[in-house]
């Protein structure tokens, strides 16, 4: 299982899928993070831009209110008629009325220079008398109601901290908010008065989106002096610097404080207006992400068809070739040009290798045939010299029957060597007849010192064996064992070696002293016993010939028998 998992991780399929995910996921993450960053940047820029705009408008409002403040302070400090209003009117009614008319005419004339203000009010707390002049176009009923409300408010007994003398403050009458500033001259109040709605008129031209608002906020209670219902509906936190609201959308609050009073100007901007274009890009990014997830299986399938399947075909073909099926070819099919070239090249390459393998095999056969012929000609030449020496000695004593028989045996021997010795295999009958000729020559040489017996079933006489194979070991027996002092018997037995009669055994043994222990040990290890003088070259030739002809199907072993001397056992496949 562990090896299988390792193979999966090393496969092209896994690497391609991992590579696609490695590229796709970071890209999607980058798109999402880039989108979030863009939203954050837009929020910051919109906040900064609107804060600057609110600061600009608040500066204009503060400048207008500052001009009104200067007028109020000037009026309270320089107008002597206010002193008469601070006295009880009963002391001098005419003088009081003249002062009242003079002040009314003055503020009525001066208010035309201050378009940002609604009213100038002069209130005598001593006489509970109020002079008011408006810069308004309103109905008489509304004006009468407003005047009465203001007079009641000024008439009421107030604590020192409830009436601001230095800053503009807010006051609510009914559902409307007003800004006021009171400058006190004795018990006479000189008041600047303006409706919040008038201050907010220029801000109505600002485009803050469908649900956007510009409002004036009272710092004392952190309440809106306009559109309070809208603030409550959307649960907007006027003190927040982040997105706020949960009753139908998110809003950004950009604010600017007034330097003239305890109030501030704020722009309520809906998030949908801030990101007017970004939702389009957000949808595109969402579509890209969803599209990537949907397209991923199709991309994998396309990779599989274009790359994995052609590679798989090549791998299967290579595995079959590895297992020895050299006839394997990759079928041509519609694919990428590169894979078509690879498939065609693979088929051509395998065909070429198959032809080369056949040529090499045939060359190897030819080489083995030549080597066998060479080995067969490497028979020990001592036999020929000894035979000629016997013929020469027999000629000296005029033993013509021996000369004739030995010459005839030698002729048969030479005929076999010339016409059969160059073959890779010969019938066993011919090989046995050659052994008889050879042993007869040796018998005439050594007399009674050599006896032999060859036992071969008739059914094996037609079997094919390598020529001169048996004679190699017969010559070794004659050469290393036979002496004139001690008689040697040579026994050759050839039989079937297994029950199904597919193999035969060639057993060659003698009554000599056997193999020396050192030689026998080397033979068991299949070591090369050849020496520079040519010793044991026959055994090496026999082994080499059997390996070339039969490979692993032939076997030769050497031993010393308990009742015999040397024993050579050869196992050969039976072939006719």
TrEMBL record:
Q: What is its main location?
A: membrane
Task: List residues traversing the bilayer.
Answer: 284-303
Q: Does the keyword Transcription regulation apply?
A: no
Identify the domain of life: Bacteria
UniProt GO molecular function = kinase activity
**Per the record's keyword annotation, is ATP-binding included, yes or no?**
no
- Record-linked Gene3D superfamilies: 6.10.340.10, Histidine kinase-like ATPase, C-terminal domain
Q: Where is the HAMP domain?
A: 305-358
SUPFAM superfamilies in the cross-refs: ATPase domain of HSP90 chaperone/DNA topoisomerase II/histidine kinase, HAMP domain-like
UniProt xrefs under PROSITE patterns = HAMP
Q: What is the membrane topology noted in the UniProt record heading this document?
A: Multi-pass membrane protein
Protein name according to UniProt: Histidine kinase
What is the species listed in this Swiss-Prot or TrEMBL entry?
Answer: Paenibacillus sepulcri
């Amino acid at each position: 299982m562990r090896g299988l998992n390792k193979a999966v991780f090393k496969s092209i399929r896994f690497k391609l899928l991992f590579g696609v995910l490695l590229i796709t996921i970071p890209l999607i993450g980058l798109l999402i993070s880039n989108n979030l960053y863009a939203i954050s940047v837009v929020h910051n820029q919109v906040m900064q831009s609107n804060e600057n705009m609110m600061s600009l408008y608040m500066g204009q409002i503060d400048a207008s209110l500052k001009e009104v403040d200067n007028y109020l302070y000037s009026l309270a400090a320089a107008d002597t008629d206010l002193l008469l209003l601070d006295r009880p009117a009963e002391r001098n009614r005419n003088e009081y009325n003249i002062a009242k008319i003079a002040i009314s005419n003055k503020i009525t004339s001066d208010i035309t220079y201050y378009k940002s203000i609604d009213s100038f009010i002069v209130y005598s707390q001593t006489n509970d008398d109020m002079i008011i002049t408006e810069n308004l176009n309103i109905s008489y009923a509304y004006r009468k109601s407003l005047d009465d409300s203001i007079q009641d408010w000024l008439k009421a007994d107030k604590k020192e901290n409830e009436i601001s003398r230095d800053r503009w403050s807010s006051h609510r009458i009914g559902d409307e908010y007003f800004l006021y500033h009171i400058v006190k001259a004795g018990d006479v109040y000189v008041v600047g008065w303006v409706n919040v709605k008038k201050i907010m008129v220029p801000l109505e031209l600002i485009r803050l989106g469908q649900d956007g608002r510009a409002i004036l906020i009272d710092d004392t209670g952190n309440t809106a002096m306009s559109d309070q219902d809208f603030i409550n509906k959307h649960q907007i936190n006027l003190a927040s610097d982040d997105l706020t609201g949960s009753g139908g959308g998110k809003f950004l609050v950009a604010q600017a404080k007034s330097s003239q009073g305890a109030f501030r100007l704020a722009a309520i901007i809906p998030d949908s207006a801030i990101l007017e274009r970004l939702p389009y890009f957000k949808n595109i990014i969402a579509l890209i992400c969803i599209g990537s997830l949907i397209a991923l299986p199709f991309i994998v399938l396309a990779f599989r068809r274009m790359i994995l399947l052609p590679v798989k075909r090549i791998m299967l073909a290579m595995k079959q070739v590895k297992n020895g099926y050299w006839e394997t070819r990759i079928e041509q099919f519609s694919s990428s040009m590169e894979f078509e070239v690879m498939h065609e090249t693979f088929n051509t390459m395998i065909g070429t290798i198959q032809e080369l393998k056949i040529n090499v095999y045939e060359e190897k056969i030819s080489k083995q045939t030549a080597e066998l012929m060479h080995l067969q000609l490497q028979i020990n030449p001592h036999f020929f010299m000894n035979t000629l020496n016997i013929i020469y000695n027999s000629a000296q004593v005029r033993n013509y029957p021996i000369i004739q028989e030995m010459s005839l045996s030698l002729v048969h021997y030479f005929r076999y060597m010339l016409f059969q010795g160059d073959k890779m295999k010969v019938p066993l009958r011919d090989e046995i007849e050659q052994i008889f000729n050879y042993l007869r020559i040796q018998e005439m040489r050594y007399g009674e010192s050599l006896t032999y017996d060859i036992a071969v079933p008739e059914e094996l006489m037609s079997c094919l064996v390598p020529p001169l194979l048996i004679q190699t070991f017969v010559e070794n027996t004659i050469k290393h064992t036979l002496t004139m002092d001690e008689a040697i018997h040579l026994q050759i037995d050839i039989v079937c070696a297994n029950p199904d009669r597919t193999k035969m055994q060639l057993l060659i043994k003698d009554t000599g002293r056997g193999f020396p222990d050192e030689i026998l040990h080397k033979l068991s290890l299949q070591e090369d016993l050849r020496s520079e003088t040519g010793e044991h070259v026959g055994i090496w030739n026999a082994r080499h010939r059997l390996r070339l002809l039969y490979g692993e199907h032939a076997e030769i072993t050497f031993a010393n028998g308990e009742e015999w001397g040397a024993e050579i056992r050869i196992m050969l496949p039976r072939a006719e």
